[in-house]
Amino acid sequence: MIYFVSKQQSLFESENYKPLSTEESIEMIKSWKIFMFDTEGTGLDCHIAKVLLMQFGKMDKSIQIVVDCTTIDPLLYKEVIEQSFLVGQNLKYDAKMLMAIGIFIRKCYDTMIAEMLRYFGFPRIPVSPEEYEEQKYDFPYHIKHTKATKDKPSYSYYELSFALDALGYKYLGINIDKSIRGTIKYVGITEDVIIYGANDVIHLGDIMNAQIEYFKSINAMLALQIECSAVLSLAYFEYCGVKIDEDKWMKIYKRNCTDLQKTIDALNTFVVNLGNKKFIREAIQLDLFMDVDTSSKSKCNINWSSTDDVVPLLKYLGFNTKGWNKEKKEETESKGADLVKKQKNINPEFADLYLEYSRLDKLCSTYGPQYTNAVNPKTGRLHTEFRQLDTVTGRLSCGSQKQNEDLAKLKGLPLKPRKGHPEDVCAYPQIQNLPNTDEVRSCFIAEEGNDFISIDYNSEESRLLASLSGDKGMLEVFEKGYDMHSYVAWLIYPEKIPRDIDIRDIKKKYHDLRQSAKGPEFTFAFLGNWATLVGNYGMPKEEAMQIEDNYKKGFAGATKYQDECKKYTEATGIIRVCRETGHISRWWDWKKWYARQRSKEFWDSYRERKEAGLPRSKEADEHFAARNKYDKNSVNSTTQGLGAVIFKEFTYNLYLWILDKGYQDKVKFCVPVHDEICEECPKELTKEVVKATKHFMETIGAKYCHRLPLPAEEEIGPFWKH
After folding, report:
1. At what angle do helices 221-240 and 618-661 cross, to 10 degrees?
2. What does each C-alpha distance from 498 to 319, 490, 509, 717 come to in angstroms?
3. Could you read off the pLDDT of 208-233 as tens digits, one per residue?
4. Which of 143, 182, 287, 570 is 20 to 30 A from 594 in CA distance terms?
């Protein structure tokens, strides 16, 4: 039965639903305690768009209530929503829309997030029907068809999808019609829209029950609870946003653009001085009498953003330009700065110029007017978008290249930005991977009368690795309060640093060796080896191998733990992100890799090519690249992924504390960066907010880091300090 709550009498003339008063609907929903929920709005930006409908569904599917929010005040439903458990699809959108009108959800289940957790590690890439059948994938998919072109015929493929219609087909074998959704903001509320809204919630309970059955079977109910709850704290981050000093930001951008042009001029001069006509052109000028002016200078003929132009120059200078293409899964020609950095010694003068160009080019193309364009004029703050399960570790990812159409229209910007025109872009910006400089971070500020608070864990990932592995050396570092870089230097340079020295004295007495130790420390922590040291730092092979040996002997417990993680993933295709919660990530095409690993034909072919001096086959390249990737993921995900679990759990607890205190109009979540949370609040609340934040951080940290404490440290000021 569908009930419709509205003051639009003309919409009651339908046999498909019955009218219901506001009071009757509230009393009915109150009795449910748990219900299926959805909203329909005029757009995606919660600060600009308006809520058109709210839909409530009883879990047994017998009743659906559709509320017309254009004539009925949604705040009348505030109490029942905030005191109930909501089941929805992509609830972050609904949560933000409600926050904008003063309603804050406390407890929820999100069918989309649950499905993303189930297929955590599966990329959203197309697979052919043949591969889909061969691998016996059971993921929710959309079948898509390409259009035929001159070069390619039309073909079909499957693509991983977490949309409601894909879930309906997977779990219930039904086709959920979503065709009306895109027209709602244009047609408004009609009979068809009301029926569509009711049908949008009717199947959510059945999908939830099917998903829960799966998570119970793998003992991952705690993981499911944490991820669904995190939807609300992430919604709060997006709703609150962060204030940016627009004038200072654009001043930095313009200076970077000026420096970029100077660097391009220097690169052009370098190329001209080479004298190779392949890379230069003669700037011939003609005077009024058509005489050639031979005094004109030669000009560089290279477009520095073009791979086709830059790669031949790099080869001419002696650089190896072969790089691994993740999408094509093969070696391709590359002009990447990382490749040049590894080979810097080949031509230091050019390398320095090119690396500076790459740095500045990224700054100018990424961190410019896109950020000031994203400032919402209604809030005066910059709002972005966070995704909680898009990375292999579960760390948050941020930003979107898709234009925020609601904001673009409001600001008079084109809905389709011109290529190469950052001033047109009005998308959700990346604010997690900002340049870690005081100047850039000082652009993110507190409102007048407020403090900007930054709190993060002290050496979170190292502490988690020490706790998980039980490595005696690592535990000693933290228990005795040693500096990790100094301890690593003591380990890897036994011939240069006395064995009886106090570790605390190394920072002062052997400063250069301590600095040199940072490279190997980070290399081995993230599953690099001696070859990585040779490639990244130009170390002699023998020295690099000895350093690796010293490090692994010193941290034998951590090395053993890492090896166990790799072996488990190679044998099962599963990465155990957090054993206590049941979080796992999958090596999505592991079946294919494992079949090759056990194939006599594959290894015979590999050895034959190697003995004949031939390069590895594309298949072998793909095989070893996959192994290297998942060896790293199998280890990194247990520390970074556990860190992500801790972050999601403590931010949700902090979000509930803010609601309990009634501070939702005062305390704002601004920026999350891995293990760091940035908040803003009135100065008179700063001490209380810092105390509460550190309490939840350290309490939840202790829950998962058993052998060591996870201390949190704060920075407070008028802007973002770190």
Report:
1. 70
2. 40, 8, 11, 42
3. 999 999 999 999 999 999 999 999 99
4. 143
Is 9 strand, coil or helix? helix
Q: Which of 123, 156, 153 is nearest to 142 (CA)?
A: 156
Which fold would CATH assign to domain 461-631?
DNA polymerase; domain 1 (1.10.150)
Q: How many CB atoms lie within 10 A of CB 34?
A: 14
Q: Rounded to the nearest 10 degrees, what angle do helices 556-572 and 618-661 cross at?
A: 110
Q: Which amino acid is at 341?
A: K
Each domain of the chain, given as residue ranges in start order, spans 2-120+186-237, 242-382+397-431, 461-631
Nearby residues of 225 by Cβ (< 8 Å), 6 or more positions away: none
* CA pair distance 695, 693, nearest whole angstrom: 5
Higher per-residue confidence, 339 vs 18? 18
How many angstroms separate the first and last alpha carbons of the chain? 56
Which string of b and e fits 544-568 if b means at least 16 CB within 10 Å? Answer: bbbbbebbbebbebbbebbeebbee
Chain Cα centroid distance, residue 341: 25
Distance, in Å, from the CA atom of 80 to the CA atom of 384, rounded to the nearest integer, reads 29
Q: Is 309 helix (H, G, I), strand (E, B) or coil?
A: helix
Tokens describing residue 546: 């000895």
Q: Which two tokens mark 103?
A: 């309603």
Distance, in Å, from the CA atom of 611 to the CA atom of 619, rounded to the nearest integer, reads: 17
Look up residue 339 and give its amino acid: L
Region at 100 (left for phi over 0; alpha for psi -120 to 50; beta for the rest): alpha
Q: Which residues pair with 330 in a beta bridge?
A: 325
Strand runs labelled E in 410-499? 427-428, 444-445, 450-457
252-292, pLDDT tens digit by residue? Answer: 999 999 999 999 999 999 999 998 888 998 765 555 555 54
For strand 676-682 and strand 583-586, is the pairing parallel, antiparallel, or unpaired? unpaired
* 318-351 pLDDT per residue, tens: 998 887 655 555 667 888 888 888 788 899 999 9
What residues does 456 pair with on adjacent strands? 676, 713
Whether 576 and 120 have beta carbons less than 8 Å apart is answered as no
* Token representation of residue 241: 């946003």
Sign of CA pseudo-dihedral 538, 539, 544, 547: negative
pLDDT digit string, tens, across residues 154-176: 778 888 889 998 899 889 988 88
The amino acid at 24: E
CA distance 269 to 271: 5
List the Cα angle 539/544/550 in 5-degree steps: 145
- Name the H helices within 577-685: 590-597, 600-611, 618-661
* Gyration radius from the chain CA atoms: 29
Cα–Cα distance for residue pair 389/398, rounded to 1 Å:
11
| Residue range 605-632, pLDDT digits in tens | 999 999 999 988 989 989 998 998 999 8
The number of CA neighbours under 13 Å toward the Cβ of 634 is: 22
Reported as a pLDDT band with limits 50, 70 and 90, residue 132 is confident
| Spatial separation of the C-alpha atoms in residues 440 and 52, rounded to whole Å | 40
* Residue 177, CA atoms < 13 Å, CB-side half-sphere: 9
Cα distance between residue 85 and residue 99, in whole Å: 16
- In a 3-state reduction of DSSP, which class is residue 2? strand
Fold adopted by 2-120+186-237: Nucleotidyltransferase; domain 5 (3.30.420)
DSSP 36-77: EEEEEES-S-TTT--EEEEEEE-TTSS-EEEEETTTS-GGGG
Angle at 465 between CA 460 and CA 471, to 5 degrees: 130
- Return d(Cα 392, Cα 640) in angstroms, integer: 10
Closest CA relative to residue 56, chosen from 101, 98, 100, 86: 86
